[in-house]
Amino acid sequence: MPQASTQVPEGYVKAFFRPRSLSDAKYTYCPGCHHGIVGRLIAEAIDELGIQDRTVGIAPVGCAVFLYQFYRVDFVQAAHGRACAVATGIKRANPELVVFSYQGDGDLAAIGTAETVHAANRGENITVIFVNNQVYGMTGGEMAPTTLPGQRTTTTPEGRDVRLTGYPLRISEMLAQLDGPAYITRQSVHDVRHIQMARRAILKAFRNQLEGKGFSLVEIVAACPTNLKLPPPQANRWVAENALKYFPLGDLKVKGG
After folding, report:
1. What is the pTM of this model?
2. Which of 117, 106, 57 is nearest to 80 (CA)?
3. Phi and psi of 107, rounded to 5°?
4. Which of 2, 141, 182, 197 is the residue whose CA sits 20 to 30 A from 212?
């Protein structure tokens, strides 16, 4: 098949560029998955701040594990749930590095709850990107700590019953009550306006680390179209009409602001 031309037509200006921090590898995430959008926003922040040569990403088990191949920065794999602990060790060993973890809700809010809470409570000078798509996406679509009441998953085929499994965890609200964190925010990427808001939040979280302000967490309420069994446009609407009612957007803590 003939290749599409990369030349800019006369009279037009190229205004959209691939971030330098992204590799040439093609994304392997499912169509419509929000991991791809969030991954790009992180790369844009790294480029804008000029920190590619000293950034280290930490990605554990789950859909986050694919990130290593998509970036031109160093990455370290962590055991499931242990990303904040690994990030803490690297940052303390070499404070000049810019260290971020990239974690899903099953990882950060279940298996890694203790590591997350204590890293936040200590005010570790790291950046945490928390993708909340309300399900264990990679391992079969099981109920996660953030699965909504009544939401169907492979382990709750009749819908999540809070009498049996409790309520979804609002991690950002929990962490915002601690004295240690500098910045806790919840954003979404279900439409263009919210993508831009999420971009600014991620940039702020990295800037906080550069300025030594301490622990920053950006929660992104995301869609998993595969496990929602919805086409991507409908999955985006599902986030807006369902997930955001339980996980409202906005800054929950801005220390000194």
Report:
1. 0.92
2. 106
3. -80, -60
4. 197
CATH number for 245? 3.40.50.970
199-216 per-position pLDDT tens digit: 999 999 999 999 999 999
Q: Is residue 14 part of a domain?
A: no
Contact 83, 103 (CB under 8 A): yes
Dist CA 41 CA 146 (whole Å): 23
| Domain span including residue 57 | 35-254
Q: Is residue 9 part of a domain?
A: no
Residues, the chain, total? 257
C-alpha 227/C-alpha 134 separation (Å) is 10
In a domain, 6, yes or no: no
CA angle 167, 172, 178 (to 5 degrees): 110
Strands (E), the chain: 55-59, 74-77, 98-104, 127-132, 183-188, 216-221, 250-254
Domain count along the chain: 1
Residue 157 burial by Cβ neighbours in a 10 Å radius (0-12, 13-18, 19+)? exposed
Residue 7 has a CB neighbour count (10 Å cut-off) of: 8
- Residue whose entry in the numeric block shows the structure tokens 């409202």: 248
95 part of a folded domain: yes
CB 69 within 8 A of CB 47: no
Kindly give the residue spans of alpha helices, DSSP state H, lying in 98-170: 105-106, 113-122, 162-165
Q: Evaluate whether 56 touches 89 at the Cβ level (below 8 Å).
A: no
Longest distance between any two alpha carbons in the chain, whole Å: 63
Joined together, the tokens standing for residue 76 give 């370290």
Per residue in 47-97, pLDDT (tens digit) is: 999 999 999 999 998 888 888 899 999 999 999 999 999 999 999 999 999
